[in-house]
Structure formats: structure tokens, C-alpha cells
Amino acid sequence: MSVHQSVPGRAALSGKTVAVVHPAWHSCGTHQVIASQIRAYKSLGARVLSVALMDDVAPSIGGGARWKNYRLHSRDLAADERYESSATIPDLFKTALLKDGWRRLLHGDHASWLVELVKRAPLPAGLDLDAIDLIHANHFFVMPFVERMRKRRRIPVVIDTHDIQARQYELRNRTGFIIPPYVGYNSMLAVELDWLGRADVCIHLNSEEHATFRQLLPFSSHELIYPSIAPVLAGDKGVQAVFVAGNNAANYISARWFLKHVVPLAPGMSISIYGDIAQGVKSRDRRLYEERRDLFRGRIDDIGAAYAGAAIVLLPTKEGHGLSIKTVEALSSGLPVIATSKAFRGMEIEPSRLRNVFIADEASEFAAAMTKCCSAGERSDPMASDTRALYEERFSSEHYARRLGGVACRLMARMPAV
How far is residue 127's CA from residue 173's CA, in Å, rounded to a whole number? Predict the structure, then answer.
């Protein structure tokens, strides 16, 4: 039975404990997917543990500004218990982390750096490994930690790849400082595949990467499960064109294209850019930030407030891999969407068939579509739109929980934790 056919009951995981192991990230697509995983497992009756791993050294485990900021912005994780771990600053000097991790990072090897960090993150005190029936890992680099979790007993493991991380690291190296000799895509991909192959099931969020990983890891078990996020609700009096983005390399490249090439062609339009991308533009292109600083609204705790004031949603995606969580968020709003074709990557849908979606890959076309949509007459009901219907059909929490529960039930039946 495929995951698409499996429909476990709401209490399918009653009495089970699931540990969700993930990077200690917030305000990004990965965080939204993790929050959805936790909600899905809880809706199926499981007790859920969150185990957050910092992707950098910290002054102490759970200490320092980054941990404080993470806790502040991750209160939406509805886990029954939360645990934290990380490498610490002393690890740089009392272990081989400088040689095995930091030195490689200077040459652009983010994959090895993150693996070496996680190797030094200790198991949290109080984490009862004997009670865990399933581990749901997120991103390949948490696997050294997961391997220690199941060293004493064989706990089934599923891992969400999210995307091909080696591609993301290539983008990061294009916009950051590294020194030669440069570590390339193939070297980082080899590290990624080595650790992904240790999980029992690989879950992919994007049809293109599902196909790629099946070819790269032919002896692993693979599932395509489109993610869910909590829907955002649009207001009925919005007047702005809204662009929401976190601070990463792909979003910076997209935002820069939008600011330099699209905005000048849409003078006088009310545009609001929400999210940490403001910091990304400011740090990478200070002149451009200063020219367009009036468009940036910064991070917003209640993302629904951004969509409440929106007339249209902008997805000027020029770079990025994996499935775009921003696109799923836009679909859930039901608002008209102006997007590049890359925004719908890996979704197996034809966006031109959605009556409230306008695809524009050239700057002039994008600006013209913005002007046309904002000058249109009375807006139709977002809840009755094509994009909202697509969200409910493919990306709703109920749909996601059924698919995820199907994989979990089959895996635990095949190889119970022993």
C-alpha cells in the first residue's frame, strides 16, 4: 500500500512516542515544516518530543543569544517535551573541531562543518531513549546525533531531506566569503548522501528531488510527501503587494532581482517586504537596502497580519531548491499571486491553470502583472479561489497527517523499536 492510499485513523499512533530531531531554526520554511510534523504526529495520538540542535557553537548548551532568540521565535512548536543540544565554544579547542570542521568551512564545505558540529552535541539529560518508538529527523547533518540516540537499541528513523542541501551550500558560497581551494558540489553531496543513507526511510517534499534522490540512493526507501503549513487568512480590504522572505542566499538573490529590476517599473505601488530578508539585503548590498529601505517591514511575529493587509502576494523567485514553503503559504491565503515559474518548482502542478495566479519570469512582465492586479476591480472571495482549493487538496494538515502517519505505521510495523 502506498502512502497515498494509506489512511490511518486519528489515533493511529496512540501510545507511541515520536522524537522530532531538527535544526534550531526559526522564521524559515524548515521551521514551518517541523511545526507541521509535530502537529501531525500529535493529531495521530502520539506523544511528541522536540530535539533542537544548534548549527553553530554556543557558549554553553542552551546558552547564548542564538538559543535565546530561537526560543523566543519557536513558541509555536506544540511538542509535549522540548530538548536542546549543541557543540560549545570549548569544543573548538578540546576536540578536533577546528581541524575537521572549521578549516573545511573556510573552503566552503558547509556539509562537513555541520556534521562535525553535531557529532559533538551531547544527548540531553532527561531524554528517555527507551521510550522512543520513532525518530523523525530533519536534514542530513542531524544524523550523527540520531545514530547516538539509537546506539543502544534499534529505533526506526525517517528523515526529511527538505531539499538537496549541497545545492543550497553552493548558493551560499556564491554570496559569502570562502578561500581557495574551493569545496564543490560533488564533495558536499557525497557527505549528504552518506548520512541520508543511514535512515530507514527518506521523505522528500519536492517531486524533482524525490526523483533525484531515488537515483542517487537506489537502495534506500523513498517517499514523496508534500508538506503542510498552517494556513494564513487574507483580509477583505487589503491594498498592498506583499513579499515575505527569510534571510538566506536564495531569497537574497530573488529579492535583489525584484528590488533592482521590478520595483523601478512599478512606481507608486504600495509594496511591503516582510521577514528577515531585510537583514540579508542590508548586509550584502547596503546601497540597495538604503535605496529601498522604505519597503522593508522587518520580521513580524504574526505572519497573518501581513496577509491581512495584502491585495496580492508576490513570489519573485529567481533561485532556490526544494519545495517553496512561501508558495504554499501564498496558496493558503487564496489571494491573487504574481510569481515566477520557479516558485512552483517540484509541485507537479501547472500554475497557469490557476485563475488567480499570474506567471511572469521577466521583470517587465512581473511589474505589469502587479499593476494590473492591484488596479483590478472588486476582489473575489479568497476562500473560494483556485489557490485555496489547491492548498486544501494537497497541502492541508489533515492530508499531510494521513500521509505521514501511513509511512510511520508501516515502518514501525516492519521494524519495531527493540
Answer: 36
For 276-280, the CB contacts below 8 A with 24+ separation are 276/27, 276/245, 276/246, 276/247, 277/245, 277/246, 277/247, 277/251, 277/252, 278/247, 279/247, 280/247, 280/248, 280/251, 280/252, 280/255
List of E strands, 29-68: 47-53
One-letter amino acid at 227 equals: P
Distance CA 145, CA 342 (A): 34
Between strands 157-160 and 201-204, the pairing is: parallel
**What grid cell was written down for 43?**
493529531
Residues 6 or more apart in contact with residue 30 via CB below 8 angstroms:
22, 23, 138, 139, 162
Count of beta carbons in the 10 Å neighbourhood of residue 95: 15
Is the predicted pLDDT of residue 378 greater than 70, yes or no?
Answer: no
Report how far residue 391's alpha carbon sits from residue 252's, in angstroms, rounded to the nearest whole number. Answer: 26
What values do phi and psi take at 328, rounded to 5?
-60, -40
| 188: three-class secondary structure by DSSP | helix
Amino acid found at 91: D
Grid cell of 224 as nine digits: 514523496
Residues near 245 by beta carbon (within 8 Å), at least 6 away in sequence: 251, 254, 255, 273, 274, 275, 276, 277, 326
Dig out the grid coordinates for 117 from the structure: 558540529
User: What CA dihedral angle connects 180, 185, 188 and 192, to 10 degrees?
Assistant: 170
Q: Which amino acid is at 193?
A: L
Give mean pLDDT, residues 279-283. Answer: 94
- pTM score: 0.90
Contacts of 222 (CB under 8 A, 6+ apart): 201, 202, 203, 204, 210, 213, 214
pLDDT of residue 27: 85
Above 60 in pLDDT, residue 1?
no
Q: For residue 4, is pLDDT > 70?
A: no
Task: Over range 234-248, report the average pLDDT.
Answer: 84
Beta strands in 74-171 (DSSP E): 81-85, 134-138, 157-160
Strand partners, 58: 88
Question: How many residues in the chain?
Answer: 418
Determine the distance from the C-alpha atom of residue 281 to the mean position of all C-alpha atoms in its chain, rounded to a whole number.
20
Q: Which residue has the cell 508538506?
A: 227
CB neighbour list of residue 348: distance below 8 Å, 6 or more residues apart: 207
Instruction: Report yes or no: 327 and 167 within 8 Å, Cβ to Cβ.
Output: no
